[in-house]
Design goal:
Blueprint lengths: L13 H11 L1 E4 L5 H13 L4 E6 L2 E5 L1 H6 L2 H17 L3 E6 L1 H6 L5 H10 L2 H11 L4 E4 L2 E5 L4 E5 L8 E8 L12 E4 L5 E5 L5 E6 L4 E3 L10 E10 L6
Antiparallel strand pairs: 1-11, 2-3, 2-4, 4-6, 4-7, 5-13, 6-13, 7-12, 8-11, 8-13, 9-10, 9-12
The site of fe (ii) ion has 4 residues, from loops.
Pfam families: 2OG-FeII_Oxy_4
InterPro entries: Oxoglu/Fe-dep_dioxygenase_dom, Pro_4_hyd_alph, TPA1/OFD1_N, uS12_prolyl_hydroxylase
Organism: Kordiimonas lipolytica
Amino acid sequence: MSALNLELSNELQAPALAATYKLAGRIHIPGVLTDQSAKDLFDAIADFKEWILHLNQGDKLFDVFPEQRKAMTDQQLHDIRMAAYAGAQKGFQYIYDNYPIYDAYHAGECAKPFNKLFEFINSKPFIEFVRTVTGHADITFADAQLTKFSPGDFLTIHDDNVYGKDRRAAFVLNMTPEWQPDWGGILQFFDKKKHVEGGFTPSFNALNIFSIPKPHAVSQVSTFSRRARYSITGWLRTGTDPKA
Ligand SMILES: O=C(O)CCC(=O)C(=O)O
Ligand SMILES: [Fe+2]
């Protein structure tokens, strides 16, 4: 695959988007990349094979790297999944595949096509666009991971607020072509009484941005979903990138 050359659509109306964001604290921006960029990015993601199975066990992170995963039996993988389901009955839980673009980039080992993706989300046009939309003129960099939610995967309610990370807003760029709301994987937002106050269906080439802290979740992808839910997710941060 040739190098990814990503560009923002030139039809984006940043000031109007900023007005919506100011009112709601969140926004769904369809058609954020040019059609060619979105297609090339999707092709790179669909080709990618080095997914890490990413879940928590209580407060601890639990990653299953590709080599370990290949060596596991179906029963072992099933048991891990059942442990995640049991965890979700008690508290905060997630299980999905990821690839830590930000960490890999700074370690000098980012999988080839995604170097360019990381550079794009930290490029002047992208940072200026998200500064305008969010009203946070002090955003200086973005971190990112690639995520893949397969049938059964989910991320329960949380608010993204981590002390010391200086996150100004969260972003999710959805990259699965065609998605039915019945397939789950909805980014849901909750009010103080835990009612669903709104949600974004993952639509292809749409960028969701939301303020922090804001309780949200990714609903479980249905067992009958015909696709996996692919996204690039991360945080728009201020200050000096500690890994740069
Ligand atoms: O994938 C999404 O829509 C949101 C992901 C998320 O909330 C997170 O990674 O903290
Ligand atoms: Fe989140």
